[in-house]
Amino acid sequence: MAKTIWVLVEIEDGRPARSSLEVLSKAAHLGRAEAIVLGSAAATVAPSLGEFGAEKVYVHADPTYDTYLTLPAVDTISDLLQRQQPDLLLFPTTYDVRDIAARLSARHNLGLITDATDLRYEGEHLEVTVPWGGENVVVATHPYQGTGIVLARPKAFSVERFEGRQAEIEQLSVTLRSESQQMKILDRVEVQSDGPALEDASIIVSGGRGLGKPENYHLVEELATVLGGAPGATRAIVDAGWLPYSYQIGQTGKTVKPTLYIACGISGAIQHLAGMKGSKYIIAINKDEHAPIFSVADLGIVGDVLTILPQLIEEVKRRKAQL
Amino acid sequence: MAPPAISPTGGWIGTTIFVLVFLAALTVFGLRAGQLVTLLAKARREDRTDHLEERIGDFLLVVLGQSGVLRDPIPGLAHFFTFWGFIIIQFGLLNLILGAFNGSLPLIGHDHTFAALLDLFVLFVLVSLIVFAIRRGIVRPRQLSSRLHGPWDGFIILGLIFLVLLTLALVETFGFAASHGEEWSLIGSWLGPSFYGLGTATNVVLYRVFWWAHILTVLGFLVYLPGSKHLHLMATPFNVFFRNYGPRGALPLLENLEEREDYGVSKAEQFTWKQLLDGYACTECGRCNTVCPATNTGKPLLPKEIILGVKESLLDRRHEIVGEPNLFQKLPLADVRSNGHEEIQPLVGGVISKEALWACTTCGACMEICPVSIEHVPKIVDMRRSLVMEESDFPPEVTSLFNNIERNGNPWEISNDRRAEWAAGLGVPLMAENPDAEVLYWVGCMGSFDQRNRKVATALVKILKAARVNFAILGPEESCTGDPARRIGNEYLWQMMAQQNIEVLNSYGFNTAQTESETAHNGHGHNGQTTRPRTIITACPHCFNTIKNEYPQLGGHYEVIHHSVFIDRLIREGRLQLPAGFDQRKLTYHDPCYVGRYNGVYDEPRRVLTVLNSNGVTEMRRNRNKSFCCGGGGGRAWMEERLGKRVNQTRVNEALETEAEVLAAACPFCIMMFEDGVKGVEAEERLQVEDIAEIVARALEEAATPATAHAGQ
Amino acid sequence: MKIFVCVKQIPDPNTVESKLDPATKRLVRTGVSLVLDPGDETTIAAAIKLRDSLGNSELTAISMGPASAQEALRRALAMGVDRAILISDPALAGSDVLGTARTLAAALKRENPDLIFCSTESTDGYTGMVPGAIAEFLGLPQLTFAREITVEGSKAVIKRVTQTGYEVVESPLPAVVTIASGSFEAIYPTMKGIMSARKKPFSQLSLSDLGLESSQVGEAGAREQILSIGKAEARAAGQIIKDEGNAAEIIADFLQRHQLL
Fold first, then answer.
1. A-C Cβ pairs (cutoff 8 Å, strict)
2. What pLDDT, in 10s, does the model give residues C97-144?
3. Chain B within 8 Å of C250 (Cβ-Cβ)?
């Protein structure tokens, strides 16, 4: 029998969030995907979810979910779990959903596997792939009968269209308890910035003396912009006065651990490496093939940073447009 | 004891008044000086009576010979004459005082030669006064300004000395005139005869008036002295006598860390009496400010203000320290300061800013130049200790340094297991594999982990192999010596690291204070038969200094040699065959502070470089003991440099001024700072930074393949 | 106020590559340097700051782990925490999120806390699920991803980190609060802190003290199970390529392969 998998779909700017749709598509491949949509915009979002793989959508259009964090959603899903036993709750990993999943797990004693990059059913058994540290990948499961929870890593799955699929829509008639209205959102503040701050950026493009002169630093900034990352710098060019101190990455300066670090014209003095070697992926472009930066790079390009950067900016733009 | 020609007091009433005034002035002076001494007595104890013979010798040289101030010749000579003039004028004064009792000094009291000498010095001092006044009033070097005593103290002193001289000259003039030459003096003989016309009676009155004026000026000076910068006149001789005779590179040990009440200094009285005496002895000449790398690059640190800040804070809190109420509080005349301060500022973060304390590179240039042996760096570190260990208040970037040293045994987030990775494939044995090695090469964290300095380590290995030295390294058994932690003020961490390293070094029998049986007992296989001293060499001056000079404080006594000295020794012993003058690039050498100033190594590296370079060593403007720090010492390599100009760039620019193509250094931190500095001033094309070992290693290659082209061409 | 902070001792994330023992399928904790989770240092700093601003409050650090976890708690005490509780029991080995949260919640319940601080996630397990589960077991609200916290009367208000900025969220007390990493500057212990840490109250609890059954926690009570441990796709060890005009493509391929575009 096909497994029933519930997916909690979040709403962003009146549309289903991309991270939710990724998970929904995956659920549709694994079995019967059923979506849960909560919040004032739930009713408008629900009909579109069939196209992304949902066979059924549970809807509760109530503004309480918009104002009060976690508990109303936990109550509603709990309520639903009293009535039906899906095989799996497959949720995206987001700020809000993490909190909901943790409480659901505790309330219903549901096994919980996080950071999944893949999952499949081997017969009756669920197998979840979870990367561990830098070296290992583990395969985990819920060792019992009944519902379990899996949180999927963002971008682990791609969004797919299920042309023509129409989801059955069920309006939930739950009454939200007043006790669940505790964590109240008083205000939402958008912090305006040109890009992410260095410390928070998941992608950093950083420049060093290999850029030659200050005028060339704009290439680093451009690449950072097209990748949606932040530009950084070595102490040498900050010292030389090309950039303010806030750009400096290193032992002195900022310590960063982005997913991707692109070092452009940086030789890799230990003082710099100390600030960025925790990055998940490191790409280095440098003329000198003996530069120490290559010793930590996942991908090292021996070449002229001034030639490569403009090409790379164009290439990234081109590929982004295709996505 | 011949009586004077004219009684200066005119009889017993005058003499009685004089005696009363004299005793009163002496009492006030005694009380005021007593207050200062009481404050010292309330400070921490410290023994400064070792090396007695040297103390006496140096005392004569520095105090009587004025060797300290004479290093700066023009004000030095002026000071020399003022000092000696002061001494001789004391005898003249004594003579004048004895006059009140119808007496005079034996032998010299009526001796014309002494009288002439006295007046010659009066004239010398007068000339010196003019020099001082011009310097203070017109040239106005920045370092002379005084926050503590205000802008006028210097001029008041000059004025008082001038008055002393003027009244003395007038006493002599009218003494000569009134006695018609019987009271002979040089000045009197020039000026006295012009006043014969006034008549003897008038001249006697004038003589007595100026005698009183002279005496009162001198007594006023005496009373003024304890509250003025001229306190140095009394304190300096003591300060010179009690100066530090231990190793210059050793910071004082903070004992009993487990049971102490305080860690470092947050209040002036937590300093030792000698540290406080420094404040009394400071002449406020400001030489320290002129050489300080922080001051010179626009940081908020002025070494002189540290010394005066400590003194100011001590005097601010004088009543609290002595205990209230006290005698000096009740007698305003006995109090060296008038109560003007409503609110007493804390010493650290008040009188002395934290930024000033963190700006210090501990380069020691201030202590080197100070003519009166003041110890600036230990004070700064003492106050840093309080900030670090009592307040946990230090630049945030230092936190990871401390954590890394403690957890990983090196300043970075690198497992110490990887310490020997640099040597892979070089055939370098670990001590564990070669426990009988004669030489332990202490690689240090920079040599072990920093890519740039790994090249230096590799070069040094090449040299050791070429000279057939039986050596080994410790590999993962070696940990950070703790030097940066200690100089930043984390004494606890330094002691932790030092003990750990001492244990390792002792286990291989390097401790020179260790008995053979102890060594054998440790069972590391060292055969105990070797009687040759086993040596530790290192390319890191900071490791070198702390192991050599500071580990003995915790019982670790080792023979430690800096690699520049060791290489020089190998060359002189003929163990290295090097092509003389093979390097034709113009080269300058930078003296690392902890090799040069702190350990007196200046000649050996120069000798090595001079042999190898066809042009010899082109000196920078500031060299040898006047060398200007790279900016990396005192833990500064691990802190941001947010204020002012960059120290490293300042020094690199000095190297560029010599038009040298190579900046030779002998310290991994200097190399790191200069590599950054060269990039910072964008001079990569013009100036290479190289360690002395790298140059020697290239010479060895040259020797092996004479056909290749010269390096750098 | 009675404030608590949950902490964890982990293999030093900066120098130790975290590894799983293929036999026990648990984190390798022997022969590696163990430290107080750096994230917890931040959280402790936040808790100390709040305690000091409130006055008349006590801050207790609580940890579940083997005996060695004492060291992590000592560090917390040296940083300025007032009291420490270690829950240690052989039966706890192999606990999953629920087992851990259940145990910590049981210990916290005995103390009637007003505020419980946790890090958003541990640096080694990074599930981020324990704080929420503790809150659920205790029936308390949870304020998560806080980068600032203030307490006004019987309410706590936080700035909660979001993708694009932050939300201001309030909740009644008692509550569980999780602190976003890097929001507070970790406290380096003073000597006084280090010395007094040896004398501060330190209690140790076992499972029976908490009234829990060994079947509810540890491996026995785990609701998740590791089936196998494999090697990650070998991270191509430093591929160094000379640019022959196609560098941009090579880099773009790399980015696409790792979902970085």
1. 245
2. 999 999 999 999 999 999 999 999 888 877 899 999 999 999 999 999
3. no
What is the pLDDT, as a whole number, of residue B524? 47
Please identify which residue in the block is written with the tokens 């991309």.
A18
Residue B312 dihedral angles phi and psi, to the nearest 5°:
-60, -45
Percent of chain B with pLDDT over 90: 72
Q: For position B63, what pLDDT does the model report?
A: 85
Partners of C191 on chain B (C-beta within 8 Å) are 257, 260, 263, 389-390, 492
Query: Residues 6 or more apart from C71 whose CB is under 8 A from it?
Result: C9, C34, C36
Catalogue the E-assigned strands of B397-515: 439-442, 471-472
CA angle A48, A54, A57 (to 5 degrees): 75
Q: What is the dihedral of CA B275, B281, B286, B289, to 10 degrees?
A: -10
Q: Is the dihedral of CA B696, B700, B706, B712 positive or negative?
A: negative
ipTM of the complex: 0.91
Mark yes or no for CB contact B408/C33 under 8 Å.
Answer: yes
Domains of chain C, start order: 2-221 (3.40.50.620)
Q: Centre a 10 Å sphere on the Cβ of residue A135 and count the other Cβ atoms it contains.
A: 16
C-contacting residues in B 362-421 (Cβ below 8 Å): 388-392, 394, 396, 399, 402-404, 407-408, 413-415
Supply angle C-alpha B322, B328, B332, rounded to 5.
Answer: 145
A252 to B450: CB separation less than 8 angstroms, yes or no: no
Is A203-322 in the same CATH topology as A4-180? Answer: yes
Tokens of B137: 């009033």
Is CATH 3.40.50.1220 correct for A203-322? Answer: yes
C20 φ, ψ to 5°? -105, 140
The shortest CB-CB distance from C242 to any of A189, A260, A302 is to A302
Q: Return the residue of A nearest to C102 by Cα.
A: A106
Residue C137 is nearest to which of A106, A134, A137, comparing CB atoms? Answer: A106
Q: Could you tell me the residue ranges of all domains in chain A?
A: 4-180, 203-322
Interface touch C185/B414, C-beta < 8 Å: no
pLDDT digits (tens, 9 = 90+) for B365-387: 999 999 999 999 999 999 999 99
Share of chain C above pLDDT 90, in %: 70
CATH architecture of residue range(s) A4-180? 3-Layer(aba) Sandwich (3.40)
Which residue positions in chain B have pLDDT lower than 70? Answer: 1, 147-148, 339-342, 515-533, 706-713
A240 — contact with chain B (CB < 8 Å)? Answer: yes
What does the block give as tokens for C166?
């932050």
pLDDT tens for residues B252-308?
999 999 889 999 999 999 999 999 999 999 988 899 999 999 999 999 999 999 999
Residue B152: CB partners within 8 Å, gap ≥ 6?
A: none
What are the E-state strand segments in chain C? 2-7, 9-11, 34-36, 58-64, 83-87, 115-119, 142-152, 155-161, 165-172, 175-179, 202-205, 225-231, 239-242
CB within 8 Å of B566: residues ≥ 6 apart: B535, B537
Q: Is C206 on the interface with B (CB under 8 A)?
A: no
Q: Which of B400, B676, B684 sits opposite A235 (nearest CB)?
A: B676
- Read off the pLDDT of residues B6-18 as tens digits, 9 standing for 90 and up: 889 888 999 999 9
Q: Which CATH class is domain B268-390?
A: mainly alpha
C258 pLDDT more than 90: no
Angstrom distance (rounded) from CA B525 to CA B527: 6
- What integer pLDDT is reported at residue A193 of this predicted model? 60
* B 361-400 residues with CB < 8 A to A: 397, 400
Nearest Cβ partner of B680 from A240, A270, A295? A240
- The closest alpha carbon to B689, from B665, B668, B657, belongs to B665
The distance of Cα B232 from the centroid of its chain, to the nearest Å, equals 16
